Amino acid sequence: MIAYIVRRLLYAIPILIGVNLLTFVLFFVVNSPDDMARMHLGEKRVTTEAIQNWKAERGYDRPLLYNAEADGIARVTETIVFQKSIKLFVFHFGSSDAGRDIGYDISQRMWPSLAIALPVLVIGLVFNISYALLIVFFRATYLDWGSVVLLVAMMSISGLFYIIGGQFLIGKLWHLVPISGYDPGLNAWKFLILPVMIGVISGIGAGTRWYRTLFLEEISRDYVRTARAKGLSEQVVLFRHVLRNALIPILTGVVVVLPLLFMGSLITESFFGIPGLGSYTIDAISNQDFAIVRAMVFLGAVLYIIGLILTDISYTLVDPRVRLG
Amino acid sequence: MSESLPEPLPESQAEPLLQITELTTILGNPAQPLRVVDGLTLTLDRGETVALLGESGCGKSLTALSLMRLLPDSGRIVAGSVRLAGTELLTLTEAEMRQVRGGQLAMIFQEPQTALNPVLTVGTQIGEAVRLYQGAASEAVRSRVLTLLRAVGIPAPVQRLTEYPHQLSGGMKQRIMMAMALAGDPQVLIADEPTTALDVTIQAQVLRLLKSVQAKSGLAMLLITHDLGVVAETAERLAVMYAGQLVETAPVAAFFAQPLHPYSRSLLASLPDANQRSGRLLVIPGRVPPLDAQLSGCRFVERCPNAEPRCHQEHPAWRTLADGRGVRCHRVDELSIHPAPPLVVASANTTVDSAPTPAPAAITPETPTPAAEVQVPLLTMRGLQVHFPIYRGLLRRIVGHVRAVDGISLDLYAGRTLALVGESGCGKTTVGKGLLQLVPPTGGSVRYRGQELIGLSHRRLRAFRKDLQIVFQDPFASMNPRMVVGDIIGEGLHALRILPKRADRLRRVAELLELVGLDPEAINRYPHEFSGGQRQRLCIARALALDPRIIVCDEPTSALDVSVQAQILNLLKDLQEQLGLAYLFITHDLSVVPYLAHKVAVMYLGRVVEHGPVDEVLDDPRHPYTKALLSAVPVIDPTRRRQVIQLDGDMPSPRQPPSGCHFHPRCPEVMAICRHHYPVETRLGTKRRVCCHAVAAGLTD
């Protein structure tokens, strides 16, 4: 298994190089630093001097790939590709176009993101699994059919509706919690409770319906019939036999997104004004701050690869049939 | 002969252990229910084994599930009574019924592969059954589980406790199932096709174990099976089921001496048997009627060779005969006077629900007469090897090989059949694929008409694809469900540009359908519209489309019922005679070998251990493995039954075959030399080859 993980980590290297290369081409070749400067300084009546100044301040005045004017090793290091792209590999994100240190910003902003994403995931999982088990226990009754109708309706409604509706009802009409905003420290809970609740509710439709399908699929298997033939009660059959097997796809689906929880949610965070990484990315996109976008794309790729490796490892833990080799 | 209904055993004084009366189960929506079990009456006494016999879809398994009250969600018991030791089961609450399940009435299922929970250890799965009947003290549970594992003959039981089902072989898994079923000391054990998924030698082990467990505990067993041989060897009484109803009950010996119901007779006659090495198999025309229809007459009438007008109108009542046998047939009195009724000997083209077709002159064989070509093999295989590499470690280095096929030499002749026999995992299917170059062989030679096939490029192989075809095992999985029959059968003609125009192809497909005994109208239908036997005919038509010289038949009948198997075997035999085809007939079922094959090769762990003409090998097997294999086949006729040579354990992994002779760890005649040297081939006469030290030393007999 160690050999497998090491091999997977080695596979990650070409993937990250590829991601890096693509973003480099996208951000510096297709969209040259001159274009970036012009965009920031205003399209019209920009002097060449102003552009040069802007580029020099942010280090975009270097040659792209090879610096013929420098000496020795600096010929390679004093280039945009080295300063802006290769340094990403050691998580050296540099500073944003607005002049702030990106690494510092990320380390500050990932905690509010996590404070929303983690409770949404855990509460959602517990709720959806319990609800799905309840439906399956009462399968082929009105509870089952009614629930399926409800779930399909919940799935069909846009997530934005839940956000706006929740803010209107709970924040504006009933004044229970603030509509949006954030307060660091322990006071954060009253700003978090509404986005977490809405995050859970908007996930119920799709989540529970999927888990219900998984459970029903497992419950029709031969080994469940064997368990019933032993004289086990329906509860034992559901919890010990069905749940154990159905949790395998559920768990691995969860593990893959675990690292990505740090990245936050683009929409929820910007609607609720949470200073997390999701709103950070959205703001960077709308401000055309490509340094941040580049850093977040790279970070996303790294976290996703980690998630996939963790998924493979988690398979070996929950399913005795899987062995990595 | 007296006539009484509906009690099949009027003279039963004390109440039997299990009394099933007029049990009726329906399946599906209430508007148009399928009466899958219809008025079934049966008894079972302590220590007795009753076999419930029938073809697939006749309601055997649903009877068992009705008794356990474990029907699928859409099934319901609508009438009847099931009394177990004086307790009516059908009126118990679910909680009370749970006490009965496992405690008094236990069940073993057909497919050990899927019937065990894959993520729980063996110890846990047996333990939870034990715990239900015997407090929760974990030490006591553990020792009881170990006792059970020993009782079902599992080696190293302590080690097995922590193992998962996928780490065990099929036979072992079925033993675990049995241990689980025995956990609550049940009075009645329902075994639903307990050995159908197992190899013959393993089947013999499991059946013997069932009998010995029964002898020790006096438990009554309801054995559900489609295999007449298994019935003959294990049961005392049997009940034949057809289309949801019992049609005959009888003591086993009396039944095989003279079956009364026409269905029973046909079933018995359609078995390929050593007595029928030449000639045709009897087939039952038609198919089981749909169970949702209102059936007025006898359910077997459409397929019955003795039907008269009354049989179409009146549903025959259950009749108990003087000797305690029961039968459901109007004409039983007349028929039992004439014990040999004229059964239909159907030729390959008058078959299942298809219109009678003209004599298949559609395709004229272009081969010379088989006799002329017999001397020269059409295809010679020498030392064929198919090894699959095993990768391991960081750099995926090859650390070993799975020697699936390890040096096989065979010859195929036009108009002749070579049967390749072996148990699952011995590599027989890989031989077929290696012959066709569907998996690239890693060594040896395959010459077709003098041309070496191994190593030919894909493009050059195409020229030979036409001549070498295959019929697969599972007719349900081997056809694309989204293509119509015309396109499936014509695909090869299209791919090899033999008939590029679709209209020409469809004309040819229609000819082929007639040749295999199907209605040419079938051309625009989809595979799912056909029954299993018809689908296998479609697969044969597909193989024949390119006018091949050699067909590899990979277990073509193992997914089919006995009566359908007879149709397919007859068809294959007819086609061989008409077209001069050479068959490589791959099978695990020794009983079909003498009917179809001329020569037989017995395979064990990637190598042929015995090879020769069918009569000689089957009548006088020399290799200990062939002997064991033959002795393990259940035989109906008690006078022809041989002592089963019990093989211990399972076939070893082809990853690490045992040193010396591969068979030596299981061989009853093992000698010192067998452990170190693989035996060289010994020739017996001109036609037989055996790989065995004992034979070489002339020690056997």
TrEMBL record, chain A:
GO CC annotation: plasma membrane
Compartmental location: Cell membrane
Highest taxon, organism lineage: Bacteria
GO biological process: transmembrane transport
Organism, scientific name: Allochromatium warmingii
Family: Belongs to the binding-protein-dependent transport system permease family.
UniProt protein name: Peptide/nickel transport system permease protein
Membrane topology per record: Multi-pass membrane protein
From TrEMBL, chain B:
Xref: InterPro entries: AAA+_ATPase, ABC_Ni/Peptide_Import, ABC_transporter-like_ATP-bd, ABC_transporter-like_CS, Oligopep_ABC_C, P-loop_NTPase
Chemical reaction(s) catalysed: a dipeptide(out) + ATP + H2O = a dipeptide(in) + ADP + phosphate + H(+)
One Pfam family named in its UniProt record: oligo_HPY
Residue ranges annotated for the ABC transporter domain, each copy included: 18-268, 381-630
Record keywords, A-Z: ATP-binding, Cell membrane, Membrane, Nucleotide-binding, Transport
EC code(s) of this entry: 7.4.2.9
Enzyme class: translocase
UniProt KW Transcription regulation keyword: no
One GO process term, biological-process aspect: transmembrane transport
Membrane topology of this protein: Peripheral membrane protein
GO-annotated molecular function: ATP binding; ATP hydrolysis activity
Protein localization: Cell inner membrane
Domain of life of the source: Bacteria
GO CC annotation: plasma membrane
Family assignment from sequence similarity: Belongs to the ABC transporter superfamily.
Protein name in the entry: ABC-type dipeptide transporter
Species annotation: Allochromatium warmingii
